[in-house]
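As a warm-up, study this chain.
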Amino acid sequence: MLFSQWDAMSYGNYSSRSGAQSILDKYHEIEKELEQKNSGPVPFHVESAENKNTSHVDIYGTVKYPFEMVRNNLLLPTNWCDILLSHPKVRACTYKKIDDTWLFNIYVVNKSSESIEDADEMKFVFRVSELQPEYFDIDFTAHEGPHNTKDHKFELEAIPLEKNITFIHANYSFGYSLLVYLPMKLFIGSKIGFSITGTDSAGNPVYVEGLRGTVERDVVYYYLAILAYLDTFQAPSDQRFDRRISEWYSLTAKFQKQLAELKKEEYFTDKSQDWGNQQRLQGNLNSKKVCTTVIICLRGRN
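Now compare it with the structure written out below.
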């Protein structure tokens, strides 16, 4: 989809430069760090915070793709279910458009071993909040989430750098009450994130754990899912799914301390089943959309 096909004025203030300037300033702030990480697995920078009411994570990174390609793929709502499904705890994702609003149902589980029958169905609204020739900002929002969490928001913005490099910033945040916060910390345990909190006696980095660590891991999972999608979207249509989950697994395998959770065969089996469930659910949703009246349904059977 070309940029000219989007009505920029319907999505926000076209002349505003605040978002684009802010993310550019952030890039210059962490530019040297990202350059140092270019020799590593995937160059990104993570920041996070939590308190008794909210938790949020920001991730920044560069991708070696032209801004136009990144923009055209990530602005298309129907691509996002394919992106999100790579996450090991997403069992399925469906979408529908009502008037001018895109609605998403995302089926998430607590453990990757749980089935879609165990999933919580999160209802997100997709929005393009700002669109400029060299900047875009999109977000997904859900008022309610699992375990009495609330105000879930995933936001992604991007700007071009050099000809074939794009700078991306993704943010995920959600809220909860104190009564939810304490048991949630106990339930999550000590999963390792990416922020470095210090060093041990041997001088090795010590990574954040607990709720902050878990949310950081989730956001990185989604960030790598975006990269895997961009890496494989030009593959033949009948090969994209297999290549996408293979690429996602290869990317996560580069972070053994944080993301080594599933064996490859187990992940592939789970995702193949998830893909089938997602196709079935989306097909049912599309059928309901077509069969809005008895006459239309009867005509569809002829």
